[in-house]
């Protein structure tokens, strides 16, 4: 999820999220992909199959729940409004009547609703039929080969460096990546080795063949190393779903306090598994454990981003990424989480740009200016507030001092 606005101050509540529970959390407000209208479902109503959008929020260009209801002319000029329309079109093309989009499906003025949605976010993405990851800083150049122009540029996208997009990458069974112009780039399973190199997440977790329960809790926390959030405490909140705990967001706390509460949540939920935590270990461990290997890999593989080559053209995942090996220093996991079972990718998605024939409106859909099936093409000029992100952008953010010390120590021991 992108940044979800201001949280409210409330007492700490800690619960364990049972992902395999019969009543898993699902969104109760969706967008109808035919009409682009919001539809509310009661708690007793079953949630229909739905697609879900993952995206970075663009400052000043997003459409809120209230904006969408009022539907003013200035709202329809925003980038976020067109993004909603294109997402609806993609979902409808894939045969889905509904899609969940955080910016308009969460009423930011309702604190209880915001808290519920934040705590249910992992479950929302996990139970979606498909997730569309929209990369606003990846542009298609017609004169380049497809693989060179989109897949290679994908690795430097800021989408991979945001905190909330971590669970949006891991939780869904299917993730389809789209460029700024809504050209299809590829799917999570086909790109799993490159994504693994970039994020540190094992390929088997990405393709669903290995349940997240098999991954040590500490290792899961390192997946957000180098990621950034607009609000520092969100770096702890965005890990709740990955770690399987729930706590009430508090907009009065800083990042260190948020991580302390996250540690309390973990210890209370799994007391027999977290006796090794001491003091503020969870706060610093995020960047200290396994960061050396990832920083070293970033420098060794930096040419991959500059020369636009796929990091895994034919090879398998490196042995250094095998979790639980004696060399990794990680404990063997024993905490049970629900298996994210793989399902088939929508048949039409081939990893190539979608032709106009494939997105042509079907009979019965009115051609209006608001119809997502009759939209002008996106162009680089329409995308504002975002751009390519350097492979060294992990030097920014609230943990930059920790990262820099690790980098300096790593380089002093290497021959780079």
From TrEMBL:
Protein name, UniProt field: Heterokaryon incompatibility domain-containing protein
A Pfam family of this chain: HET
Domain annotation Heterokaryon incompatibility: ranges: 50-137
């Amino acid at each position: 999820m992108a940044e979800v606005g201001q949280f409210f101050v409330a007492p700490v509540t800690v619960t364990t999220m049972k992902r395999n529970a019969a009543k898993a959390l699902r969104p109760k407000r969706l967008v109808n992909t035919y009409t682009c209208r919001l539809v509310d479902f009661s708690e007793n109503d079953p949630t229909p199959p739905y697609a879900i959008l993952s995206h970075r929020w663009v400052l000043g260009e997003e459409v809120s729940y209230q904006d969408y209801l009022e539907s003013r002319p200035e709202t329809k000029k925003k980038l976020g409004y067109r993004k909603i329309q294109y997402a609806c079109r993609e979902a409808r093309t894939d045969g889905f009547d509904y899609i969940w989009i955080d910016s308009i499906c969460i009423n930011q003025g309702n604190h209880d609703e915001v808290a519920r949605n934040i705590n249910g976010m992992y479950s929302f993405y996990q139970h979606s039929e498909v997730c569309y990851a929209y990369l606003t800083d990846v542009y298609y150049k017609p004169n380049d080969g497809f693989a060179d122009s989109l897949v290679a540029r994908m690795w430097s996208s800021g989408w991979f460096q945001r905190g909330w997009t971590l669970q949006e990458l891991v939780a869904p069974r299917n993730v389809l990546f789209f460029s700024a112009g809504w050209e299809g780039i590829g799917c999570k399973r086909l790109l799993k080795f490159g994504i693994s190199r970039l994020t540190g997440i094992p390929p088997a977790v990405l393709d669903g063949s290995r349940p997240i329960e098999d991954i040590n809790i500490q290792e899961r926390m390192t997946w957000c190393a180098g990621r950034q959030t607009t609000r520092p405490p969100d770096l702890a909140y965005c890990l709740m779903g990955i770690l399987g705990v729930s706590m009430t967001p508090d907009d009065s706390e800083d990042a260190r306090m948020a991580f302390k509460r996250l540690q309390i949540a973990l210890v209370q939920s799994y007391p027999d598994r977290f006796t090794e935590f001491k003091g503020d270990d969870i706060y610093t461990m995020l960047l200290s454990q396994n960061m050396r290997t990832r920083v070293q890999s970033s420098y060794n593989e930096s040419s991959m981003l500059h020369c636009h080559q796929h990091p895994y053209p034919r090879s398998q995942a490196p042995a250094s990424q095998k979790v639980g090996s004696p060399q990794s220093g990680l404990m063997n996991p024993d905490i049970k989480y629900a298996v994210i079972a793989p399902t088939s990718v929508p048949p039409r998605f081939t990893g190539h740009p979608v032709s106009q024939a494939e997105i042509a409106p079907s009979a019965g859909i009115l051609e209006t200016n608001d119809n997502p099936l009759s939209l002008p093409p996106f162009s680089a000029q329409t995308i504002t507030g975002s751009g390519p992100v350097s492979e060294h952008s992990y030097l920014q953010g609230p943990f930059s001092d920790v990262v820099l010390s690790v980098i300096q120590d790593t380089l002093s021991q290497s021959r780079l």
